[in-house]
Specification:
Largest sheet of chain A: 7 strands, mixed
Oligomer: homodimer
Order of helices and strands of chain A: HEHHEHEHEEEHEHEEH
Structural class of chain A: alpha/beta
Distance between the termini of chain A: 44 Å
Mean pLDDT of chain A: 95
Helix content of chain A: 40-55%
Low-confidence stretches of chain A: none
Chain lengths: 206, 206
DNA sequence: TAGATTGTTAATCGATTAACAATC
DNA sequence: TAGATTGTTAATCGATTAACAATC
């Protein structure tokens, strides 16, 4: 067991390992070898063993990996076995979809608040949560201490939201805008999901 | 000018170059050096020159890059200067958001059809397009020849859609399900956007 | 011409694959 | 014990960074 620091590439593969192992579990299997897993996922057995060994020796020579305990280990590594509070800003189309369509709990988060700056939506309900005005965010955060914020606002709103995000003491931001939010200096992790960029790369490959 | 094959990593950065250059253009600038661009984007100047040189010498020594022509070049490389037809399957929440929120034309596609298997939505309108029944897809494709399909269906629907996707002669698939659609053997490019996987990696970094 | 900045080669770094000894 | 498969080291591959000659 060598605690190497896992590379971002490894981390990115973990949710997929998790999901694939789960599908094997549902088939009633309880063990799997790196080469079986590799074949299913289109990876090499070597890579899988390398990946899993960043975190410790989860397998057993001559046997393979126990599916149940490997699922648990990966959940633990990703920390999705415990939840942290999250809020969402921007109750438009996209915010509506994200809050309803995604299972936050399964991803280690509990969505506890939705905020918007438009009085026409404040007070209505989305994903069983009453939408609050953005002016209430800071007080809400002081009380509930959410660690993550999802931004489903127009790109133009990003600039003025930045100081608020810092003030609210979030540790992570999931940004769906087209902006380039950088909060490295504040020690805040920012994950940007630019759907239009994905679409553009698809255009390239066609 | 050496026509090296661009790596996937380079392609992934192109939309961001495009967008950043555009914001410089809007500021009224007409030239930029690799180091200025690097600073704005948090990359190294070396990487930018390396990236752009996969495609040819777009810059000029002692001067830098002309913003207008660089934007044009990148558009041309990504092929977003021309559009191809695309359809969307799955007129639920997510399909609604994708079709309304994304500017397909800006990404080199024209959304020409939306399909669903539920009679309760067939006939209604989404993003100015009348939703058709999935049974009409094959005929529609024979007539209009869309090259790309967006899948915003439940994961469970993926398996039965697979043969239809092949039959419709799509060249690309943008898959939002949690499934593992593999169409390499058919020469079809598949881009999977698993939002829940992104959310899980955010949990890791917090 | 002098200054600036590219294009390009070489060096480094990181990630993937191959190989095999350890061991269940 | 023999067979299987991991854990781990070494080799390869690819991507990023550094350096500098070419040249506008």
């Amino acid at each position: 067991m060598k605690p190497k620091t896992p590379s971002p590439s490894v981390i990115k593969r973990l949710p997929r390992y998790h999901r694939t192992l789960y599908s094997f579990k549902k088939k009633g299997l309880d063990r799997i070898s790196s080469s079986e897993l590799a074949q299913t996922m289109g990876l090499t057995a070597s890579q899988i063993r390398q990946d899993l060994n960043c975190f410790g020796g989860f397998g057993q020579q001559g046997y393979g990996y126990n599916i149940d305990s490997l699922i648990d280990e990966i959940s633990r590594i990703l920390k999705i076995d415990t939840t942290q509070k999250a809020v969402l800003i921007g109750a438009g189309y996209l915010g509506h979809t994200i809050s309803n369509y995604l299972d936050f709990n399964q991803c280690g988060f509990e969505l506890v608040g939705i905020f918007d700056n438009s009085n026409s939506v404040v007070g209505s309900t989305m994903a069983d949560i009453t939408i609050k005005h953005i002016d209430e965010l800071l007080d809400f955060c002081k009380e509930h201490n959410p660690t993550m914020v999802v931004l489903t606002v127009p790109t133009a709103a990003l600039k003025q939201l930045k100081p608020l995000i810092i003030e609210c003491n979030f540790k992570g931001v999931w940004d769906f805008t087209l902006g380039d939010l950088n909060l490295d200096n504040e020690g805040i992790f920012v994950k940007n999901t630019r759907l239009s960029d994905s679409l553009k790369t698809i255009r390239y490959y066609i």
